[in-house]
Automatic annotation (TrEMBL):
One of its GO terms (molecular function) is ATP binding. Keywords: ATP-binding, Kinase, Nucleotide-binding, Transferase. Gene3D superfamilies: 3.40.1190.20. It comes from the Bacteria. GO terms for cellular component: cytosol. The lineage of its organism: Bacteria, Bacillati, Actinomycetota, Actinomycetes, Mycobacteriales. InterPro entries: Carboh/pur_kinase_PfkB_CS (IPR002173), PfkB_dom (IPR011611), Ribokinase-like (IPR029056), Tagatose/fructose_Pkinase (IPR017583). It comes from Nocardia coubleae. Residues 8-298 form the Carbohydrate kinase PfkB domain. Pfam families: PfkB. CDD domains: FruK_PfkB_like. PANTHER family: 1-PHOSPHOFRUCTOKINASE, 1-PHOSPHOFRUCTOKINASE-RELATED. This is 1-phosphofructokinase family hexose kinase. The keyword Transport does not apply. Belongs to the carbohydrate kinase PfkB family.
Amino acid sequence: MIVTLTANPSVDRTVTLTEPLRRGQVHRAANVTSQPGGKGVNVARVLTSGGVSALAVLPGTEDDPVVSGLRGAGMAFRAVPTGGAPRTNLTIAEIDGTTTKINEPGHPLRAPELDALAGALAEAAAGASWVVLSGSLPPGVPVDWYARLVGELSATGSARIAVDTSEAPLLALFDEPGSAAPDLIKPNSEELAQLTGLDAVDLENPTAAAQAATSLIEHGVGAVLATLGAAGAVLVTAEGAWFAGAPPIVARSTVGAGDSALAGYLLADLAGLDPADRLRAAVAYGSAATALPGTELPGPADILLEAVMAHPLPDALPKALGDTATS
C-alpha cells in the first residue's frame, strides 16, 4: 500500500488548441477534458494503473467533483470533509506541447480541519510502504506543515516518506537542523535551485544537478530524484549518482509528468529494483505522461522502459559520500 496526501486537490481542466496561444485573441478549443487532480491524486492514479494498491487522502465532500471523479474511476480514497469546494486548475495545451497553467489558490483549511486531515493520514499510513506528501498547500496552512508531518510520521510509523512540493513548504523541510528528513524528495531544476541557492539554468546540466543534490543527502534525505524536463532526470543517494536521458517523444502536455515520474520510481522501488532501474522507470513514466494529451496519465502499456538508459555520475559525489558509497 502507498498512501498519498493531497492537501490542495483540484479539478484539472485542460483546453487543447490547434494553433499557438496568442494573448488578447479569441481561440476555439479543439478539445476540453476534466479530471480529478492535485499532485498526490495524480500519483495515486498512476500507481493504481500500475497494479499497486494506493489510497488517496484529501480534503473533500461526498458530492464535490474531485471526490466524485475518484469514485467514478474506482480509486481508493479517504476524504476529510472541509465544507469548501475544490479549486480548478486550468491548463492551455498548444499543438507543439507548450502548456500554460493557471492554478487557483484553493479552499482555506482551518486548524481543526488540518488536524482531522493529519489524523486520517496517520491512520491510513499504518502498515503502508510509502507515504507521499505532494503538491501545494492551500491558504491558511502553515508553511512548515509538511515538515511537521514528516517528523510525526517518522516518529510513529515505519513507512518511508516522499515529498514533492515547492517554494516555502519545500524550504521548511530543512529549516530546523536535526529535524526528520524525508526518505525521498522529487524537485525539478527550479525547486532544486530554491533549496541550494544555485541557478536553475545551471542545474539543467545533469552533473551539476547531481552535485547540488548531494547537499540534501548530507542533510539526511535518503534519495533525491531531480527531474530535468526534456533532459531526463538524476537520482542521488548515499550509494551513488545516476543520470537517465529522456527518450525521443512528441511532447503533447506536461500535465502530471512529474507526478508520473515519482509514481514510476515508487513502482520500481516496490518491485525491488536497484537505484539505476528506479531512475529508468521514473524517466520512462514521466516521458510517457508528456507524450499523452491533456490530463491523461500513463499506464504500463504506455511505458517504453527499454528506451531509457541510466548512467552513473561518479564525479557528482563529494569525497565523503563517495567513500561511504564504496565502503
